[in-house]
Amino acid sequence: MDRPPNWNLDEIDLSPVEFWQRPWAERDAAFATLRTFRPIAHFDDPIIDSVAFAFAPGGGYYALTRHRDIATASRHPEVFLSGPGAVSLLDLPTEMVEYFSGMISTDNPKHARLRRIVSNAFNPRTVREIEDSIERIAATVVSRSLMNGTGDFVDDIAAPFPLEIICTMMGVSPSEYETVLRCSNVILSMGDPDIVSEGTDPVLAFLDAGATLTGIMEELGEFRRDHPTNDITSALVNATIDAERLTQQELASFFVLLVTAGNETIRTTLSHALLALSEHPVQKARLLADYDAVAPTFTEEIVRWATPVIWMRRTLARDYTLSGVDLKEGDKVVLYYCSANRDEEAFVDPEAFDVGRTPNDHFGFGAPGPHFCLGAHLARREISVMWRELLHRAPDIRSTGPPAQLASNFVNGIKRLPYSF
Ligand code: HEM
C-alpha cells in the first residue's frame, strides 16, 4: 500500500465529516501526527448540518490520542464522567435522553446498579442458551448466503447475524427483526442519506426509531412478566428483589443500547475481517492451517484492527492535569480508541495485521474501567464462531471490490462489501 502523505499538524481537524470520509490510511496518519506532536489537542465542536438545530455545539473538546492517556482517563471514572451530556460528542438534546440514557451514559451509583442487574441476567443458564444459538444462527446465515456464490457481505452475513442473536437473546419475535434492524441503522446513521431518505427530518427519524424500539420492548417486558422463558428479558423483569429489577423505562433504554451496541459493532468487525483477510493472504493461510489454535488471537487482532467504536466521550468532574495539560471542570474529552489501537508506544509494528499478535492490549472494547464493553465475551464468541463457519464452508471466500465506507466519525463502518467464493 502507498504511504499516505505526511500531515501538517495545523491542517488536522477531527471535527468536519470530510475528515472521516478520507481513506483509513490517511486518517491513521493524521492520528500518528497528533500522537507525536500534540497528543491532547483541542478542537471546536463539529457542526452536523443534518441535525444542527438539535445538537447545539458547545465549547469544543480535547482529543486524547495516546494509549496511556486514555487508560488514565478510564481508570478514573470519578473524574472522567460518562453521565453529563451523555457519551456523544455533542450534548444529547433532552427529548432524546429518554430513549438513549442507558447505562453507558450513567455514573455511579446508578451505573453500578444497572450493570449489576444486567450482569446477573447473564447467568450460566442464559449464557449457555445464547452460546448454542450463536452456533445455530451462524450455520443458518452462512447456508442461506452460500447458495448464490456472490453478493454483498454486509447484507448477506455481517448484518443479519448479530441482529438475530440479540433478538433471540432478548426473545424478540422474528417478525420484528426487520424493524429492529432499520431502527438501529437510523439511530447510528447521523442522517446518512443512504439510510434516512432525503426529505425526512433526521431528528424525527431518530426519535421515531427510539420510540419504536421502546414500544417493542415494553410490550415484550409486560408479556414476559406473566409468561417467562429462558431469555434475558424474562430474567430482567422477573428478578425477585425489587431493587434488582429494571423499571419499564430502564428495560427499554437497555434494549436500545443493546441493539445499537451489539449490532453495528459486530457487523463492522466481520466486514473488516473479510477485507483484512483478503488483503493479507499469508495471515489468512495461518488461520486456515489451524483455525482453533489461532482464533483467540485473531479475534482480538481484528477488533484492534477494525476498532468499530472510534471514540467515547467523558466530561471532567473537576480540574485535572493529564500529561501536563490542565483540564477544567466541565471540559469534554474524547477518547480516540482508534488512535490508542495504533499507538507505537503500546504495540510492536501497529500498522501490521498479525493474526497471532501477543500481547495485544487493545482498547477496541474500551479501556479497563467500569464501562468496559459488557458484550465483549459474547462479541468474541460471535466473531470466532462466524469465521470458523465461513472458513470451513467457503475457504476461498474473498472481497471482490472496494468497500463502501460509512461516513461516520463514530462507527468505523462498512456499508457494502462485494464478495465471492
Ligand atoms: C466487536 C464488537 C463490539 C465492540 C467493538 C464494542 C465496543 C464497546 C466499547 C468501546 C464500549 C465502551 C464504552 C465506553 O468507553 O464508555 C462498549 C460498551 C458496551 N457494550 Fe460493546 N462492543 C461490542 C459488542 C457488544 C455486544 C455484542 C454487546 C451486547 C450484546 C455490547 C454491549 C455493550 C454495552 C451494554 C456497553 C455499555 C457498558 C457500560 O457502560 O457499562 N457490545 N462496547
Order of helices and strands: HHEEHEHHHEHHHHHHHHEEEEHHEEEE
- List low-confidence stretches: none
Helix share of residues?
40-55%
> Which structural class do the helices and strands define?
alpha+beta
Treating each run of at least 4 consecutive H or I residues as one helix, how many helices?
16
Strand-residue fraction? 5-15%
* Arithmetic mean of pLDDT: 90
Distance between the termini: 24 Å
Each distinct ligand? protoporphyrin IX containing FE
For the structure shown, list the relevant keywords.
alpha+beta; 421 residues; five-stranded mixed beta sheet; 16 helices; binds protoporphyrin IX containing FE; 49% helix; single chain
Describe the structure.
The protein has 421 residues and is of the alpha+beta class. Helix content is 49%, strand content 10%. It is built from 16 helices and twelve strands. It has helices spanning 17-20, 24-37, 67-75, 94-97, 110-121, 124-145, 153-158, 160-170, 177-189, 202-226, 232-237, 248-279, 281-289, 291-306, 337-340, 376-393, and strands spanning 40-43, 61-64, 80-81, 150-152, 311-316, 320-322, 325-327, 332-336, 398-399, 404-405, 414-416, 418-420. Helix 6 (124-145) runs parallel beside helix 16. The mean pLDDT is 90. Protoporphyrin IX containing FE is lined by residues 82, 87, 103-104, 115, 166, 257-258, 261-262, 265-266, 269, 303, 308-309, 312, 337, 364-366, 371, 373-375, 378-379.
